[in-house]
């Protein structure tokens, strides 16, 4: 079989389908342009043979066939003539055209059911709804029509996105459209075609396609395309029905080819359906980006400390995550810890997904190899393997939870993170974990032995006043008393508390000021609030506030 003959059949099917659907909306010149463009996509030269097929397709007996009922009427006419001894004169080309008319009309019948009078709006809505339900013929046809603006608003970007799904589902037309319309990802389309056109005749077709499109790079078999072809053969999935759950696993960048095959070809459909809550569809397309200037906009000026923190992060932000040793930011002040959390959130804000995790709420179920795992929950939400997890209040971790967290900090452990069910491994090596602690206890000391640690300095008297002023202004606006003032005696009183206690007292005092319409918050008011909240004054021990500040281990 000539390669052009092999490609002519699906070309005719697609031409007949679009022509029948859009009959009355495209004129003869547009119809010819449609055929010529499809011929270009299918790598069929517009020579004498192609012109013969085009002329035959527009012959009166075939041109009037716009639905399956019309096709059947013509078949009955031909059968009656042959049984009556008449010379029907059906050539090989006639039989090809008739066969592809049948294929096209069956597809149209499946897509449009009993709809007779097709309007442009009905065509667009039906194709879109059917494509959304996973019909691959509808997806491919809609992609082509959308790319060229045939009866549908032109949208090349959306068309390419849709045709890429068809291509991944080993659809010939989808891959050929990808080669023609998506040059940035051509290698993937050629590799898929190289995999699916594997018989001796088809291999010649693949070589012909490469020659016709000027592609001379070496191709490799796509492991995903092989799995999908096997699944077609086993009846696990259907060639014309895009199974989103199956595809989510098959196209996952977090699973190895071996685990995909184990999971998809040896499991029942019910088991595959149960995987929908796991983040198999998290992509690896993005890498971490970081804006150092945004991270440096801090209320407390601690340049040297921040530089050390950013230096520890640099392997991850320079896309060398395997060299990153988990960063732990630890000290004795909640305000400072939150300040650095906000700094990293600001630095990663552009183009990255950042998730805050409260370590005090983590239980053993948050570390198991199931959908409850806090990393897997985060990836299911962000859909990106490059996700930043900022784990706060690590001093509150339980003993067993601490052991499990330490395991997750290991890069090699995350590379092959084992799921309980199904029993396969996910590659979670792309996630970035940063730890924070606002108190130095034995738990934090244990973490410190596994991490690259930045010990934050004790908060100074000057910094304490900055915290008091900034917190009062910010919280006053929140409570609707932006003009309220804090008297100097009140600032002096607050200086004896830890920053987290200061914020609680200020909140209570501002709530009272808003209720009583007071414009000045006095020291007496603050004392009353601290007494009501049972907040004891902080006793100074060794060093300011008795903290452990820059401990070294």
- Helical/strand content category: alpha/beta
Number of helices, counting only DSSP H or I runs of 4 residues or more = 27
Overall 3D geometry? Answer: elongated
Reading side by side through the largest sheet, how are the strands ordered? 2-3-6-1-7
| Uncertain spans | 539-553
User: What integer value in Å does the Rg equal?
Assistant: 33 Å
Residues in helix, % = 55-70%
Distance between the termini: 76 Å
Instruction: Report mean pLDDT, rounded to a whole number.
Output: 87
| Number of DSSP E strands | 9
Described by its quaternary structure, the protein is single chain
Question: Describe the biggest sheet?
Answer: 5 strands, parallel
In percent terms, what proportion of residues is strand?
5-15%
Provide a descriptive summary of the structure in words.
A 5-stranded parallel beta sheet has the order 2-3-6-1-7, with helices on both faces. α7 (120-132) crosses α8. It has helices at residues 3-21, 28-41, 48-57, 60-63, 68-83, 92-112, 120-132, 136-148, 156-168, 172-181, 186-196, 200-213, 223-234, 244-250, 257-265, 269-273, 292-295, 303-317, 334-348, 374-382, 399-409, 411-415, 442-448, 461-478, 488-494, 499-516, 523-532, and strands spanning 327-330, 353-358, 387-392, 417-418, 425-426, 432-437, 452-455, 485-486, 520-521. The protein has 27 helices and 9 strands. 56% of the residues lie in helices and 6% in strands. The model is unreliable at 539-553 (pLDDT under 50). By secondary structure, it is of the alpha/beta class.
């Amino acid at each position: 079989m000539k390669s052009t003959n092999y490609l002519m059949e699906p070309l005719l099917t697609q031409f007949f389908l679009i022509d029948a659907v859009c009959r009355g909306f495209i004129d003869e010149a547009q119809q010819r342009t449609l055929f010529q463009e499809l011929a270009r996509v299918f790598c069929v030269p517009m020579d004498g043979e192609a012109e013969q097929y085009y002329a035959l397709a527009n012959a009166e007996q075939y041109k009037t066939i716009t639905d399956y009922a019309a096709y059947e009427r013509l078949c009955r006419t031909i059968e009656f003539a042959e049984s009556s001894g008449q010379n029907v004169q059906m050539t090989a080309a006639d039989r090809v055209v008739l066969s592809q008319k049948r294929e096209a009309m069956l597809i149209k019948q499946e897509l449009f059911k009993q709809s007779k009078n097709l309007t442009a709006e009905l065509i667009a809505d039906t194709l879109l709804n059917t494509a959304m339900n996973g019909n691959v013929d509808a997806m491919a046809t809609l992609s082509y029509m959308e790319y060229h603006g045939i009866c549908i608003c032109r949208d090349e970007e959306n068309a390419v996105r849709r045709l890429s799904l068809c291509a991944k589902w080993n659809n010939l037309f989808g891959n050929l459209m990808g080669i023609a319309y998506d040059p940035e990802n051509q290698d993937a389309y050629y590799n898929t075609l190289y995999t699916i056109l594997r018989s001796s005749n088809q291999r010649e077709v693949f070589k012909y396609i490469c020659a016709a499109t000027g592609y001379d790079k070496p191709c490799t078999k796509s492991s995903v395309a092989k799995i999908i072809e096997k699944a077609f053969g086993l009846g696990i999935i259907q060639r014309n029905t895009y199974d989103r759950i199956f595809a989510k696993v098959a196209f996952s960048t977090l699973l190895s080819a071996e685990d995909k095959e184990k999971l998809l070809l040896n499991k029942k459909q019910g088991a595959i359906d149960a995987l929908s809550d796991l983040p198999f569809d998290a992509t690896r397309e993005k890498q971490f980006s970081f804006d150092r200037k945004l991270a440096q906009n801090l209320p407390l000026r601690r340049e040297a400390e921040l530089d050390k923190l950013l230096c520890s992060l640099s392997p991850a932000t320079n896309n060398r995550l395997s060299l990153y040793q988990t960063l732990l930011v630890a000290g004795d002040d909640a305000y400072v810890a939150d300040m650095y959390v906000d700094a990293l959130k600001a630095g990663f804000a552009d183009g990255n997904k950042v998730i805050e995790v409260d370590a005090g709420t983590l239980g053993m179920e948050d570390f198991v190899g199931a959908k409850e795992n806090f990393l897997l929950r985060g990836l299911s939400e962000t859909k990106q393997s490059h996700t930043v997890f900022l784990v706060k209040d690590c001093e509150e971790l339980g003993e067993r939870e601490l052991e499990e967290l330490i395991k997750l900090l290991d890069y090699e452990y995350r590379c092959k993170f084992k799921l309980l069910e199904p029993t396969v491994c996910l590659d979670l090596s792309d996630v970035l974990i940063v730890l924070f602690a606002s108190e130095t206890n034995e738990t934090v000391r244990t973490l410190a032995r596994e991490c690259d640690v930045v010990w934050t300095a004790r908060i100074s008297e000057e910094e304490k006043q900055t915290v008091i002023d900034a917190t009062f202004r910010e919280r006053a606006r929140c409570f609707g008393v932006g003009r309220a003032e804090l008297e100097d005696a009140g600032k002096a009183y607050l200086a004896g508390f830890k920053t987290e206690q200061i914020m609680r007292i200020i909140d209570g005092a501002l709530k009272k000021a808003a209720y009583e319409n007071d414009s000045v918050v006095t020291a007496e008011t603050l004392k009353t609030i601290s007494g009501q909240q049972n907040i004891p004054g902080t006793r100074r021990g060794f060093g300011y506030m008795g903290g452990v500040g820059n401990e070294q281990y």
